């Protein structure tokens, strides 16, 4: 049967889904033994994604190129799947692999044998450049082909659109966390010094390119062991803590604490952890153990700072200690734990889960502000001021019907700088129109306001958010709200 | 072949879009009152432009699709927190409340939290955890003397007093008893450590 004609977007989506499935299968294979249901499910997912791609008309074999820091297809970086592909990329680079090509007909056994060659540290030599094809044939791998790297080939260094540094930092955080979850689930010592070092490097990267790193976080969809969630929580905590003028050591401690706050989930059975749907009473009781289990894991690490142990234990407690677990001694969480909690809940509310849709950031703020006892209000408000009522990357519908993307925050948390994506009513923008503007600022006598926030599946209409005296919202009395029109950089003289 | 409105069971969203796309392209020509030849003569690129516009619309749909790695439950089982308009309206106003208030210091409450977590793990942890928690107590709270029940009870009680703003006399007594019990469990763990780890 001839595959149906599909659009390039459909094909691109199918390729991304396959790359996601490959990365997920790599993670599961590192964690579980061959033949376990988890591995079989992951490999089935890989095979299904390959068939879907073929069905969508993607050229077969489906060839994924391996650059130093990114998976690519046809030279185009696949940013989303690459975020957690650090281990796969590293193994491929060590084995001088330039591309992996997959043909439909791949079986679970064959995929398993392929991972046996690709993943173990000790197997680096099995796939030597000269004997590669013979090894694959001997192993009965007929639906995966390997292309060798040509040293010095510029395609080896294809970068992500978000910048190589940001991608590397994110991959390092995700890899480190993934490794530590695997180690914790196997009762092995964690790599705490490495985690601290990676958080330090992330801080340097946040100084250089904060927007790239945070934009990458929004693309991470793989949630095995809540890796994507924890990395995002760490990035949020670092961003907020940086804005308060915390010292370098404090930042490293809070970053590590946020990164490892859910490590206790590595001790929760996967059928509970990944259950789609409501947990029953017994499952909930099991899940509620993860903060104490996390503290148990972390306490075994001799070099770990106390704040990480506290955050793992207390991140489901309100500022007055209510929540879970119930400690032997009534307690009040530290400021670090209270910040991690704010970041944790915000991330969970704004993320898609199998059982819920994502809230927009302003909806999440409204939910979090409902009950003052749930969060440290000083941290929560500092958090909103730092991220903005409309954080970077939020898509807005303006009151004249134009669509815009938030690109930058100002001192006014509800008046960011936006990039116009379309004119009024969705019309194309005339070439002479400035495309970068500060909301709430009059340009040619017109002040644009936010009418709605749009997401992939919803348009959330917003009421008037303005206050009588907007100056009271500025970060400091010296910095009043911006009131000058901002010219489009590309078109300014 | 099913009509574009009928989605066969199990058909993937993207396959359906591809099928609708083909259907729309066909319909563009078929539904025109112009004969095909006229259609082409009027504007040879009309069909191509209409097809392009359709592709762009579908492309936008795909750009905003639900992330692929998240397999969603059926629509009716999805949970969406409802946020009222008044809550959104009050959002910016509520930010005024702490205008000028300095943010908390990250180290605030760290030592008390640490002591409480260690005490909890000495009481509720697995045997190995109890030993690890006791080791940290000895090292980080200078509790080398394993018999120092009084010292530990005092430290726990002080930590707890810092956490509670008001405590009646009854409550204070209850707290002290609780701290004493925890301290007893903790000193047992400390003694266990001292036996295996005299340094």
Describe the structure.
The complex is a heterodimer of chains A (493) and B (199). Chain A folds into three domains: 8-157, no CATH class; 164-385, Orthogonal Bundle (Hypothetical protein af1432); 395-473, no CATH class. Helix content of chain A is 44%, strand content 10%. Chain A is built from 18 helices and 13 strands. Chain A has helices spanning 8-31, 37-55, 79-82, 86-94, 108-118, 132-138, 164-185, 192-208, 210-217, 227-243, 248-259, 270-273, 281-287, 290-299, 306-314, 335-350, 361-368, 377-387; strands spanning 62-66, 71-73, 76-77, 97-102, 144-148, 395-398, 403-408, 417-420, 436-438, 442-443, 446-447, 450-454, 459-461. A six-stranded antiparallel beta sheet of chain A has the order 9-8-7-6-12-13, with no helix packed on it. Chain A has a five-stranded antiparallel beta sheet with strand order 3-2-1-4-5. A two-stranded antiparallel sheet of chain A has the order 10-11. In chain A, helix 7 packs antiparallel against helix 8 (192-208) and helix 7 packs across helix 9 (210-217). Chain A is globular and about 70 Å long. With 199 residues, chain B is mostly helical. Among the domains of chain B are: 13-63, no CATH class; 110-196, no CATH class. Chain B is built from nine helices and no strands. Chain B has helices at 13-30, 36-42, 46-63, 85-89, 91-95, 110-124, 127-140, 149-163, 169-196. The longest helix of chain B has 28 residues, at 169-196. Chain B is elongated and about 95 Å long. At the A-B interface, helix 1, helix 11, helix 14, helix 15 and helix 16 of A face helix 1, helix 3, helix 4, helix 5 and helix 6 of B.
């Amino acid at each position: 049967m001839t595959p149906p004609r599909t659009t390039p977007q459909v094909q691109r989506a199918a390729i991304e889904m396959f790359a996601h499935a490959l990365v997920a299968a790599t993670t599961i294979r590192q964690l579980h033994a061959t033949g376990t249901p988890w591995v079989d499910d992951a490999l089935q997912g890989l095979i299904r994604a390959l068939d879907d791609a073929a069905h969508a008309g993607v050229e077969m074999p489906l060839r994924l190129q391996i650059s130093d820091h990114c998976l690519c297809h046809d030279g185009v970086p696949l940013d989303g799947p690459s975020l957690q592909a650090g281990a796969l990329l590293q193994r491929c680079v060590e084995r001088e692999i330039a591309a992996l090509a997959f043909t439909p007909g791949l079986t679970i056994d064959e995929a398993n044998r392929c991972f046996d060659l690709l993943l173990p540290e000790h197997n680096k030599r099995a796939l030597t450049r000269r004997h590669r094809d013979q090894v694959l044939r001997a192993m009965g791998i007929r639906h995966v082909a390997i292309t060798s790297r040509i040293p010095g080939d510029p395609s080896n260094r294809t970068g992500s659109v978000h910048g190589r540094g940001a991608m590397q930092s994110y991959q390092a955080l995700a890899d480190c966390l993934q490794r530590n979850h695997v180690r914790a689930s196997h009762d092995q010592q964690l790599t705490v010094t490495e985690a601290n070092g990676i958080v330090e490097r992330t801080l340097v990267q946040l100084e250089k390119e904060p927007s790239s790193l945070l934009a990458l976080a929004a693309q991470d969809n793989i949630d095995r062991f809540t890796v994507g969630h924890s990395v995002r929580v760490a990035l949020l905590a670092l961003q907020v803590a940086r804005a308060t003028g915390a010292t370098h050591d404090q930042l490293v401690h809070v970053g590590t604490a946020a990164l490892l706050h859910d490590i206790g989930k590595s001790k929760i059975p996967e059928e509970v952890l990944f259950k789609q749907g409501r947990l029953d009473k017994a499952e909930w009781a099991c899940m509620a153990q993860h903060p104490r289990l996390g503290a148990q894991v972390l306490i075994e690490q001799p070099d770990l700072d106390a704040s990480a142990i506290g955050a793992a234990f207390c991140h489901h407690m309100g500022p007055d200690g209510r929540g879970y677990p119930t400690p032997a001694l009534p307690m009040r969480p530290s400021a670090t734990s209270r910040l991690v909690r704010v970041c944790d809940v915000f991330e969970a509310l704004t993320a898609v889960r199998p059982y819920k849709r994502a809230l927009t950031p302003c909806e999440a703020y409204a939910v979090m502000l409902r009950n003052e006892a749930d969060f440290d209000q000083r941290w929560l408000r500092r958090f909103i001021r730092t991220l903005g009522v409309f954080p970077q990357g939020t898509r807005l519908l303006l009151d004249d019907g134009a669509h815009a993307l938030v690109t930058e925050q100002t001192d006014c948390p509800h008046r960011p700088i936006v990039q116009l994506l379309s004119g009024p009513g969705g019309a194309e923008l005339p070439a002479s129109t400035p495309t970068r503007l500060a909301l709430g600022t009059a340009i040619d006598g017109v002040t644009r306001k936010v009418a709605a926030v749009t997401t992939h599946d919803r348009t959330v209409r917003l009421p008037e958010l303005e206050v009588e005296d907007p100056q009271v919202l500025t970060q400091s009395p010296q910095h009043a709200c911006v009131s000058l029109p901002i010219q489009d950089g590309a078109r300014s003289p | 072949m099913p009509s574009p409105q009928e989605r066969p069971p199990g058909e993937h969203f993207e396959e359906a879009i591809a099928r609708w796309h083909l259907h729309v392209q066909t319909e563009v020509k078929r539904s025109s009152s112009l004969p095909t030849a006229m259609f082409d003569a009027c504007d040879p690129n009309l069909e191509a432009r209409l097809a392009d516009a359709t592709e762009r619309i579908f492309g936008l749909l795909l750009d905003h699709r639900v992330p692929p790695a998240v397999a969603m439950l059926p629509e009716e089982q999805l949970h969406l927190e409802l946020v009222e308009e008044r809550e959104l309206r009050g959002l910016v106003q509520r930010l005024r409340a702490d205008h000028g208030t300095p943010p908390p210091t990250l180290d605030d409450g760290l030592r008390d939290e640490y002591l409480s977590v260690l005490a909890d793990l000495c009481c509720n942890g697995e045997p190995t955890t109890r030993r690890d928690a006791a080791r940290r107590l000895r090292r980080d709270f200078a509790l080398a003397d394993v018999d120092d029940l009084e010292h530990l009870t005092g430290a726990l009680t002080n930590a707890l007093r810092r956490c509670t703003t008001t405590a009646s006399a009854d409550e204070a007594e209850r707290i002290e008893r609780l701290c004493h019990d925890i301290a007893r469990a903790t000193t047992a763990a400390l003694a266990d450590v001292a036996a295996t780890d005299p340094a």
